[in-house]
Structure formats: C-alpha cells, structure tokens
Amino acid sequence: MKNTPKRKQRNKPGVVLFTAVAVMLMLSILLTATVSFVSVNRTKTNDNYKSKQAYLTASSTLESFINQIQTDTAPTNDPTAKAKQKQVMDNLKKLASANSGKGTTTTVSYNGGDGKSDNIGTTKITVAQEGTSVANIVVTCETTYLGKTEKVAAHISTHSVTKPAEYTNTIELVGNGGAGYDNLNVIGDMAGINNTTGKIYRFTNNTSIYGSYLMYGSLEVSTQPLIMLKPSLVDEKQGSTVTISENLDVSNEFHINSTMARADGYNYVNIGQKLSTSNHMDVGSSGFDVDLFCCEANIGGNDYTQYGNFYVYKGAGAYNGDATFGAAGQTINGSLYVEGDLNVTKSLKVTGSVYVTGTITGKDKIVCTASNIHEGAVLSKAGRDAKPQIPVSADAYVYYPEDFFMSNDTNVTTISDKYQAFYDGSNTKTFNTFASDWTNVDYTLTELIDLTGTGAKTPVTSRYKLRITSSCTWASDLSFNDYGNGSRILVDVSDSSGDIVIRLQNGLNLGAEWSPVIVVRNRSTIIDTTTGDRKYNCYFVSDSGSAITLNGIDSVTGKSQHSGSSACNYSFKGLKVFDYDTYVRMFDSSVLNNTKGNPGLPQSGFVLNPTSVDVAGSYRPKNSSIIFLFGENTTLNATDQSFFQGSFYSPQAIVNIATSGLGGLVVTDSAGGKMTVQCCAVGVVIANSFGNANTAFYVYTKPSTTSVMQNAKGGKDDSAFGYTLDRYDHY
C-alpha cells in the first residue's frame, strides 16, 4: 500500500464519467450505493484511459460515501438528530465488524449508456475494521473498468465527542453562593448557572444589563437597576429574556425595557416563584411589549407600569397562582391572566382583558371594560400565553483548567505539554529571558493593515519595549527601571511558536507604577474554515503546580474530578491586555509609537462592535484568541484602570475586576446606536464568584473556537456522534 498525498485530478473536461452516491440505510440493509452512468466512448481503449476512469469512479464513490456520513453526523443540538447521529455510527460499525472484522462488501455494476446490458465495470465498496478496534474503520472502493482496476480507501476514526462549548454570556457565575453587584454594567447576556436553591443576588446603584439575564436563585433589587433587552449578541435574529428561577423582590426602582418589538420566543420576564414590589417597577414600553410570568404576585408600594401581558400561573409547592395588586398607581397595557385568585386593593388599569380562574376580590377597582373581565375563566396556556420553561440546569462544565493543564487526551487539551514543561525543568524561560536578547528589546513592527474595512491596506507602525515569542513564565524578575511605567509588551503568536502559554508566577503583584500594557498579536496561518479562527492561541495560566491529579469523570455528575491544585493569588494595578488588531485601530500613531506610558483614551472615531453583524464605521473584533485559565482557589484582583481584552475561564476561581477600566470607549449595537463607556473587559468572564466596583462596563466577545475552552462545556447527554477522516490512500 502506498500513501499518495496528492490525488489525481478529477476536474478535466470529459474525464468524470460516473457519479456515485452512497447512502446509509437505518435498520435495514445498512448500505446501498447508486451509481449513475454518463455515456462512454468505448472506442477509447488505451490502458491509461481505462485506468483513469477506474480511479475516478472509485474515488468519486468513496468521496460520496464519506460526504454522506459527514452530512448524517453534522453537529446538532436537537435530541432527535443526535439519536440519528448515533444510529448512523452504530450502523457503520456494524458493517465494519461483520465477518470477524473483515467487514461488508457491496458490489455495484454499471452498463453502457446505450441501454445494452453488456457490463463494462463494477465497483466494490467494502467497510471493514482497521486493526482490532471497531472504532477504526477503513472504507475501500475498488473499481474495475474495461479490465483495469483501481482501488482507493478512506481511513476514519469514529468517536463520540462532547458538544462544542457555546459561550453566550458576558459574565457567568458558576459558584453556589449569592452575589452583590454595585454599578455593574454588562453589554451582552449575564447568568448565574449553578442550580443551587436559596441563593440571593443583589443589584444596587444603577447596575445595568443590555441583553438577557438567567439566574438560578432569587434577585433582590434596589437603587434603580436596568435590564435593557436587546437582540442576542450571538445571533441577531434572536431576542432576549429575563429568567429568575425563584423570587424577584423589588424594593426600589427597577426597569426592564426592550429595544425591539415583542415576538413569540422573546421579550419576557419569567419568575419561577414570587414577584414582590414595594417601589416603582417598569416592564416594557409603548410599542415594545415585555410579557411577565410568575407563580405568585404581590404588587405594592408605588407605581407598577407594564406594556405587555401579566401572567400568574400555579407553580410547585405553595404557589397557587394568586395575585394581589395594591400599588399606588398600577397599569397593565395588555391583559392580565391569573390562575388562582385575584385581590385588587387599589385602582388597577388594564387596557386588555382580565382572565381569572378563581375568584376576584375588589372587582370594582379594576379599570377595564366590564365585558373584558372574566371570572372563573379557563386559561389556554398556548401560544403567547404559554409559560416559558425554566431549564432544570444550564450546560455544565465538564473539563476544568486543571484538565487543560494535566490531561494527556488531545481531545481535551493542546497545551498540557507546554504547561507541564514549566515544572519538569524543560522550560525555564521568563519575561527576563527575552529581555536579555537584544532582538526582542525596543522592538518595532510595521504591518500593512486594512484600517477602514474597505480592503485598502496602509502601513501601521507600533513599538514595544519587549517582545515574547514563545511560552514562558511571567515572573517578578524584570527591571523596574527598564520595564516599569507602562511598558508595552508584545506577545507574538505564530506558526513557529504554536500556542503560547504564559504562566503567571504565584504571588505576582504589580502596583500602579508598573501598569504593563500587553498586546497579543496572532499571525498563525492555519485557519479554521468554518469560524475563521486561527489555530493557535495565547494562554495566561495560573501557577497551579504539577501535583494535580485527574480523578476521572464522575459517574453521577458527568464532570471531571481533580485534586492537588495549588492556590494562587495575583494583584495587578493598571494592567491592560489588548488584542493587536484592536490595539492598532483603537489608538493613533502618537500612542503606537511609544514603548511606555498609559495609552489613554481611544482615538476619536474608533467604535467597537460586539454584535454578530457588521455595522458601518465600526470595528468588529474576531473571536478572542487571548484566554485566561485560572485553576481552583486562584484569586485575581485587578484595579486602577485595568482592562482585559480576552476571555476568563475560571469556574473554581475568584475574579475581582474592581476597576474603572478603559475610558472613552464607544460601543455600537446592531442598529448603529452608540454608547460611550468605561470598559473593564471585552470578552467573557466565567468564574466561581465575581467582584466589581465603580461604574464600569463588560462587553461581550466570544472566545476562539480553536481554544481549549471549546472542549470545556457539555455533558454525557450532549454528545455528538461523528468521525475523523484520518487520510485517503490510493493503492
């Protein structure tokens, strides 16, 4: 057998005479191949011609077969489709394991195009085991055409893989404790995904979320927070929602508005238990309805105003679907549905209809057309009136940073060798190692860049005090005189560097006098054709040690277990981390030409676009290739105008970004609306617990799909059944 990397050409005119389509049949014959014939000029009988036709038919049949498997196992979240995926792969394995692993052969013959029955060729398709494991399969197509035979094969590995992780939340809390937020502002979605009952989250001092909010637990609201429902930053065709699994208690002003008209599937607030108000609450606005669902309502205090329908349906336990309306001013610009009893103690205006399954007390206080008040009604709970489901749990994280640090499974991690090299003595490099090489000091980079998005490239020069070109430790061994005062440090990711892993030495503590500016440039040339993400990434990792033990996957939770992770503590003041392509657009030449100093405000005219669509006059960053991986019991404290453009995966760590961040950043939405913000981070922050302070914003950008984060999330019920095409052979 010979392995031929370069296959013969199949696109010359008149060459392709046959097209083969192989179809996997479920629970029956399992395999059928249909070959259609285009007329053959049988006057050409030279051996080269016959060999070429035999090869083309064999290779086309094989490719069709592989393409069909690929179609049948395309990634999906649909449970029915996933079941079919598994069935396809089981059928394929059944074919391969037949005859003690010699497999199953199907023969297809084809005749002349003039309708005559003379046989001019056959193709045999064989699906067999390769070696002793049915997980490894070889599909062979052998075609004989007018006496000449050619054979090709595809070697494939079947597998079940965890569903690729989807990161839709700007901030996501994984811990089982509550949290308080003071002046937290999120552009994108926010979630608390740990389904532990009894947790309480608190919003104070103008906390704002411009997106969706999902939390397991109760929410207590005071001091004028705002949730502005906006189109999803993941998919602009989707709307936004607020989901609270337990109680919502509003003791001060709370506003839930929307920038889009209501449609089925979004613009709703879904409360799993009780809604209580003792001060002003607004839901929706004229032309932008937001429906509200709960299992008990007690509306009191000052005003309650809603544009949209108000639903009170029975819930688990003691929640009987009862509602009391006793606010000083209360208006529902929509309809009211109550599955239990309704008690109205102060004037309630309803512009639509009132439907109550039980009894109504205080009917005379309802300002509504009398014929629109229905006592003893039967509620359909269909269409718009159907209560949205609160998911039993969010997608769990299966793998943790410790798995990425220590696992030998390449389906889980690509960086463990580089991480472990810090502890086996094979990588002793630090930032200071690069500072001792004059080629990396006072480094100047000039590159042609399309700054306008029009395709026209202009030379852009940026200068750096230090360049890092491979994995190393960020230790406290740099000279302050040389590298303090806001030194610009370039991390240069390339094909030759591969993934760059930067270990943060435990206890690294840099005060405001350091204020380093890290710029990560990624020029790896291997591109994921689906997402456009570059193969290699830059990882900042905790110094969690090499004593970590991976104890396997827990049979009950489906999560990886580990022990022995060392605790780490980090403190930074004024640290700024930028993606290079954003950095050179955000700042003008007067900043880019400096190797030190605070870069200051973004230049006039720079607009950051975190949405999933292009907006004229804005810059939309690609998925972030800067990843922070912090192991269990790690704590990060970043203050004094620190800023991070990158994603944190720290599900068992504490991330405190208590900083006013980067000032003067203009952010756009998909409609071209603009907002100037103080920005702390552009990316996603996933942490056990999260701390913030000051009026600062966190802006959504998805992490690179080629990073190890793509393997983190999923579960035993979220497997995608598929295969890897290892290679083609021509015999």
Short description:
This protein has about 725 residues and is mostly beta strands. The protein is built from 8 helices and 56 strands.
What does this structure look like?
The protein is globular. The protein is mainly beta and 731 residues long. It contains 8 helices and 56 strands.
Radius of gyration: 31 Å
Q: Uncertain segments of ≥5 residues (pLDDT<50)?
A: 1-45, 715-720
How far apart lie the N and C ends?
5 Å
Global shape = globular
Count the strands? 56
Task: Give the DSSP E fraction (strand runs of 2 or more residues).
Answer: 35-45%
Outline the biggest β-sheet: 19 strands, parallel
Query: What is the mean pLDDT?
Result: 86
Total DSSP helices: 8
Share of residues in helices: 10-25%
Structural class by secondary-structure content = mainly beta
